[in-house]
Task: inverse folding
């Protein structure tokens, strides 16, 4: 008898507790649903203020020392030419010399590749410039044929463009995206007859830097275009507000 009474009492207590837990769950669920999430966009256009450019030149000779000497002559011609164009000596950087052995190669009667006898050395060196005089280096990269006309085997790369005040741009975009998101949330709350409560959560996306009016794809880790002098940066901010 006592066992039955205890069992009934335990069951009743469990039922009451279950109702309490269920009530809290419903209350918390309704509370969690009483929020609004919006995404704001911050955009900024700017012009690069730093440029990098590089080119490479090479010499071939069966004698290694002779190849070095010939490369040194070309290096001086290139250096003097750059300085004559107004490039500061401290901005001109020559890399170490890359040495490659060359061999005469051919395919045998069965079509197999055969590496033949040693034919000489190929020495290559790279020159690079980093400068804030963007227009000057742009013009230099376009007129580099002047070096080639001096009998130097020279290959020029396309310039790369950067912006040194990107941290400031990012702060401005974050502020703009946050303002945009809040205005969207206020409008949605107003249209639904509610008012905006406290900010519960803020999530920032990655910065995407592309060429303006281009079809460049955004990437998960962020895009950073270096081929265009003019740039467009975008960033998103997701805000979650309590709605009253």
Result:
């Amino acid at each position: 008898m006592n066992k039955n009474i205890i069992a009934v009492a335990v069951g009743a207590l469990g039922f009451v507790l279950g109702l309490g837990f269920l009530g809290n769950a419903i209350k918390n669920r309704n509370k969690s649903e009483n929020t609004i999430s919006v995404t704001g966009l911050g955009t900024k256009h700017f012009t690069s203020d730093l440029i990098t450019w590089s080119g490479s030149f090479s010499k071939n000779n069966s004698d290694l020392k002779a190849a070095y000497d010939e490369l040194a002559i070309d290096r001086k011609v290139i250096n003097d030419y750059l300085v004559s164009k107004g490039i500061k000596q401290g901005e001109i950087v020559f890399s170490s010399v890359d040495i490659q052995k060359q061999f005469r190669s051919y395919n045998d009667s069965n079509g197999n590749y055969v590496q033949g006898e040693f034919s000489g050395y190929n020495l290559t060196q790279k020159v690079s410039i980093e400068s804030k005089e963007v227009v000057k280096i742009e013009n230099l990269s376009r007129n580099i044929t002047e070096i080639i006309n001096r009998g130097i085997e020279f290959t020029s790369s396309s310039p790369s463009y950067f912006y040194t005040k990107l941290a400031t741009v990012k702060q401005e975009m974050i502020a703009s995206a946050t303002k945009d998101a809040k205005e969207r949330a206020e409008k949605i709350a107003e249209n639904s007859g509610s008012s905006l409560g406290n900010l519960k959560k803020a999530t920032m996306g990655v910065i995407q830097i592309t060429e303006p009016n281009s079809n460049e794809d955004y990437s998960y880790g962020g895009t950073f275009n270096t081929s265009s002098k003019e740039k467009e940066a975008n960033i998103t901010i997701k805000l979650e507000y309590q709605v009253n």
Notes: The helical segments are 2-33, 64-84, 134-142, 145-148, 166-191. The chain has five helices and ten strands.
